[in-house]
Amino acid sequence: MKAIPTPAFLGAAALLTAAPLAAQPTPEQADVIAAVDAFFAALRNPDKTALGTMMDPGGVISVLDKTGAGAPVERTIPVPKHLENWAKSPPGLDEHMIYTAVLVKGDEAQVSGPYRFTVNGKTPHCGVNVLSLVKTENGWKLGDTAFTMVPPSECEVLGAPEAPAP
């Protein structure tokens, strides 16, 4: 027998899903969101050095890549190495993220949610980002970042944003 969700269950699920997005951010959360927005703007910038201004050079990026066959591949990349690789990347790279959680405590913050990565409008992967930020004299910077990478066929299940129109 197939289970059929009740209207009460569907309503509760909709409220729980919408709650983080519907809430008005606090001023502290708004500052962190602005920093993450600036990070993604730097990622889109044709000037590949712009991304470095948004990241703490002491940070690391942890990746769990589930796009290939077999066991997931784990990688840890120091931010300076990532920036070196980024400087060599081709144009047309983009990433969009839905901020499902924005937590701020003093001079540290975490932002998490699903994302979609595109290359010239095509999606090679999507996943979930967990961005850790630190507040510096010059504002918020990304410290450590962790993300998963899954095939495009899983983007909808994750709730990843749609790819922007070309």
The N- and C-terminal alpha carbons lie at a distance of: 44 Å
What is the rounded Rg? 17 Å
Structural class: alpha+beta
Low-confidence stretches: 1-21
Number of domains: 1
Tally of DSSP β-strands: 7
Walkthrough of the structure:
With 166 residues, the protein is an alpha+beta fold. It has a single domain (25-158), classed as Nuclear Transport Factor 2, Chain: A (Roll), CATH 3.10.450.50. Helices cover 28% and strands 36% of the residues. It contains 4 helices and 7 strands; from the N terminus they run ααββαβββββα. It has helices at residues 7-22, 27-44, 79-87, 155-158; strands at 60-65, 73-78, 93-97, 101-105, 108-119, 122-136, 139-149. Strands 1, 2, 3, 4, 5, 6 and 7 form a 7-stranded mixed sheet that branches. The longest helix is centred in the N-terminal third of the chain and has 18 residues, at 27-44. Mean pLDDT is 88; it is low at 1-21.
Observed structural traits:
single chain; 166 residues; alpha+beta; Nuclear Transport Factor 2, Chain: A; 4 helices; 7 strands; disordered N terminus
Summarize the structure.
Helices cover 28% and strands 36% of the residues. It is α+β, with helices and mostly antiparallel strands. It has one domain (25-158): Roll (Nuclear Transport Factor 2, Chain: A), CATH 3.10.450.
Layout of strands and helices, then pairs:
Elements: H1 7-22, H2 27-44, E1 60-65, E2 73-78, H3 79-87, E3 93-97, E4 101-105, E5 108-119, E6 122-136, E7 139-149, H4 155-158
Parallel strand pairs: 1-7
Antiparallel strand pairs: 1-2, 3-5, 4-5, 5-6, 6-7
